[in-house]
Amino acid sequence: MTTASDSVLDFTDVSVAFRSDGPTASAPAVDGVSLSLRRGEIFGIVGESGSGKSTLANTVLGLLPSSATVRGHVRVNDRDVLGLSESDLRALRGDEVAMIFQDASASLDPTWPVGDQIAETIRAHRAIGRRAAREQAIALMTEVGIPDAASRYGDAPHRLSGGMRQRIVIAAALANNPQLLIADEPATALDVTIQAQILQLIDRLRRDHGTTVLLITHDLGVVAQVCDRVGVMYAGRLLEVGTAHELFARPTHPYTRALLAASPNRVARGTRLPVVPAQWSVESLHESEAVAEAEAAQ
Amino acid sequence: MTSRLGFVLRRLALTVPVLFVMSIIVFLIIRLVPGDPVRTMLGFRATDENVEQVRHQLGLDQSWLLQYGDFIGGIFRGDLGTDIVSHASLSDLLAQRLPVTFELAGLAMLLAVLIGVPLGVRAATGGKWVKRLTEGFVVFGISIPDFWLGILLVLVFAGTLVILPPSGYVPFADDPAGNIRYMILPVLTLAIGEAAYILRTTRAAVTSVLDRPFVTFLRAKGIRTRRIVAGHALRNAAPAIVTVIGIQVGVLLGGAIIVEQLFALPGVGRLVVTAITQRNYPTVQIGVLAIATTFIMVSLVTDLIVGWLDPRVADGAAT
User: Fold this and answer.
1) A107 and B213: CB-CB below 8 Å?
2) Which of A8, A143, A198, B260 is the most exposed place for a label (fewest CB within 10 A)?
3) Among the residues of B46-89, which ranges form H helices?
4) pTM exceeds 0.90 for this model
């Protein structure tokens, strides 16, 4: 059981369904997920495309399209955010909870100077002047590792590299020192060395500011590198949760085992990669869960 | 900065061949249309001798090549020639007529932008009823012909309500209030169709910007919807909207010809229409060239504004 002080984000039996125009009811995108994030940890959610991990993350800030119906409870610092009005949600976004997305190039307004896009976040939540916001934005740019930040302030996004743009996005997200950062595939669109730098940056900022991070990824290497705990999602369900070490050493769920077995660096060179069975039906998942539970009981 | 100047100079240099080809086309078309300016001028009772005499006086008995040389050479010497019917200097005529057309087209475009852009933004962000009402306006505005709308407006405001004059003109300098009263109906006639085009363009551009991922990030940063639309979506949609406005200036100048005719406004359009019926070659040539030059200059300014609005285009021009 978690208490109010050590849990930043709580999902209780969260389900998300999308209203579809088709004749058949579609399967829920997120199906009965319960999960609790401890203050200051990096929690990774892994899963393949369509497993519901991004949908789950989007419930926190109310960023799902209007066709989505969310049930259950999503609590940020013990406050249920699902019933919040649009203006209360706006106060939460970018202040108490920040979120960053996969493609940094697409996350920035191409017509705005990068520095102004950081200052804008500060001014949306704090009653400070233009000049003070600018000073803070330059300090943030320096903190996320942008060399000669003051002279970069006025640059349009296309003048910066992909990695630098993602640093700007992180600076904009962290501008108001949020307690929780939701990072949806923050490094996927970048090349491998830059990817590692961005993850190190998130890890360092977490240490410096005590920010809790919910990191969504399909990359098990990322999980191994920075996450304290990991949840595995498949077909909208959270299959298992454990420390990153536990998960890699002793995966309990058959899907997790299949996923790990398919990692290239765990397979001897020259042999074929095992394949994760493509579309597991929900029934077969239940069966395999029953098997896993039976095995665990023995 | 110098590269921007180079861009302007290159664009200006490009307008020279365009205007040159334009001048040949106008010169030929008016001469290929059946009808003789001298016979039109002198009436059917004129003797062949008289006709030949006047033809010689006007230089119309020379070869087309010489006539074209006179026309172009005159322009380069700053002499636009004379109207062969009224014998007025064409520079003076243009100085009188161009301001009327510019006022009409300029006010119509201003009104169209003031209606089209805000409504287009509302159409992109508003609810079901806003979308339906604006779509109704777009269909109405685009499908109604100018001349029909003009007649309808005259019937309502000058005929039934009797609050505005049906036609006529006074210069702004002589009577500002009267000038505006005369301008209201012609400007409305031109502006409504334009506003519909601009509304449609704005709606499409803003809608597509609002679908882009950076808008999701703006929402995730807690930026107000109003600010996202006004500060970011409209800013990103601006190059597309300005481009369409620039193109529509050409359509507007064409529409102005009809509207000047309908409301008896003494603009360049009316000057050219009258000159065509009289086969008044020099006036047609200079009038059409003046309208074409206006459109080319507006296109140039549009390109410069678009380049300034989009930092990527501006950088592209610099390298």
Assistant:
1) yes
2) A143
3) 48-58, 64-77
4) no
